[in-house]
Amino acid sequence: MHVRSSLIVLLALSTPIFAQSRAASTALDFDYFKTRVEPIFLAERPGHARCIACHGSGTPMRLQALSAGRTTWTDEESRKNFDIVRRMVVPGSAKSRLLMHPLAESAGGDFYHNGGKHWNSQDNPEWQTIRSWVMGATLSSGSGQHARIIQTNSAGDNVHIIDPSTNTVVGVIRGIEAGHGAGAAPDGSRIYISDEAESTLDIIDAKTLAILKKVPLSGHPNNMAVSKDGRRVYVGIIQEPGGVDVIDTASMQRVKTVPTQGTIHNAYVTPDGKYVVAGSIAGSTINVIDAATEQPAWTLKMDLGIRPMTFAWNPDGSTKWIFAQLTGLNGFAVVDFATQKEIKRIQNPDLPPGKQTVPEGSDPSHGMAVTADGKTLVVCSRLNNYLYSYSLPDLKLVGSAELGGKGAGWVTLTPDGKSAYVANPVTNDVSVVDVASMKEVARIPVGFVPKRNATALLQ
Asked: Which of the four, 6, 50, 400, 432, has the lowest number of CB atoms within 10 Å?
């Protein structure tokens, strides 16, 4: 009688949780579960039993058993697993039992798990993958690629991967100290990071986040860019005598260094892929390289050092303008690509009354990007701690977002241009700004002193 009463009480306590989970189960994506979550249940971890070893029998979260020799479940079996596992989830809640039970108590998990604590940190990529599913992540249709924000940490030893659909960190690349620039192969198979600590271009497998190779460079690097066809990576070399290193992605070797007038801070590929544009702080030059011949095409001498750049384009896709931030300027210059001349200089607005600027120490305006439709330019102001938006082509100020994070060191946009991700090196986080309303909607903790970031479609 006592046992029966205990069971009734247990069921009564459990039913609301299960009912809530079932009622909201439409928020949990089956395809994401099958592709990303289920493999975690089969993964081997040194010193630990696999999840399937215990959850294949005799536990409330009982997964379908795998017969000898089988390494994955059928679709029908996966759907049964999905129905069982989702009972341990309250969609949208990071406190779901599925997340808390295998997580170390010191990292925010609950007290005890019969199968042991598999993850000692919420930064663990497996934990982050499950969290993304709990928070509503889905698989993209068609190409199988997924939009990700790659965030380097200039004073850290890792790189963070952010899922913009959930605004959570879903992966961490380890073993890269003082990462600078970031990019990815067009097919989403690789991530590229310019590594300041080792003066290498680090090539990473996008699925496993394992470093495949560290390619030695001709000198200390800064930012980098990937060609439109994925065959080349161009790395700006900030160490004397400077230049742009060209890495062949098939052989994973540096094949040449293109000379420039001054050492290079940032390298970019134009929207049509025909040119590499490299800016020099020391030389105050914009160096334009023909991507077909990998030879200098033209150089523009400016009055101030060249900081971050981005581009506007013509209806045929060719480059119309270069937007260039300059040393000491809280704003940017506009360079006409065809005439190779500066045609305008824009000053970011003064702060409203009562607002104070951020103490100087870095360039006042650093980081800019153009939305995919070509209609909006977003510009960071470190000095003001704002992100500004300008309409194109008239370059009128149309919005401003005051940031909760501090530093405004770089910005990248989601592929649809709806969200901006601003790296905040002072507060070690990333501000998410809704571009339509120009409001900060989230902040994501990352590593130490995050600066450069990039948007990629990864496998």
From this structure: 6
- 288 and 367: one domain? yes
Domain end (from 106, 134, 162): 134
- What is the spatial order of strands in the sheet that 439-445 belongs to? 410-413, 419-424, 429-434, 439-445
Compute the distance between CA of residue 322 and CA of residue 290 in angstroms, rounded to an integer: 16
Summarised one tens digit per residue, pLDDT across range 271-284 is 999 999 999 999 99
What is the per-residue burial (b if ≥16 Cβ within 10 Å, else e) of 293-304?
Answer: ebebbebbebeb
Peptide bond into 91 cis (omega under 30): no
Determine contact, residues 421/162, Cβ cutoff 8 Å.
Answer: yes
Per DSSP, 26 falls in state G
Looking at the structure, do residues 100 and 201 belong to the same domain, yes or no? no
pLDDT at 417: 93
Residue 132 confidence class, pLDDT cut points 50, 70, 90: confident
The model's pTM is 0.72
Give the pLDDT mean for 257-277. Answer: 97
Sheet containing strand 397-402, edge to edge, reads 368-370, 376-381, 386-391, 397-402
Contact present, 73 and 51 (Cβ < 8 Å)? no
Do 258 and 355 lie in one domain? The reply is yes
Q: Which residues contact 31 (CB under 8 A, 6 or more apart)?
A: 138, 139
* Neighbouring C-alpha atoms within 13 Å toward the C-beta of 421: 33
Q: Do 119 and 155 fall into the same domain?
A: no
> Across the strands, what pairs with 333?
324, 345
Cα–Cα distance measured from residue 431 to residue 381, given in angstroms and rounded to the nearest whole number: 13
74, 110 Cβ separation under 8 angstroms: no
- Rounded distance between C-alpha atoms, residue 223 and residue 268, angstroms: 8
What pLDDT was estimated at residue 316? 85
Do 228 and 186 form a contact (C-beta atoms < 8 A)? yes
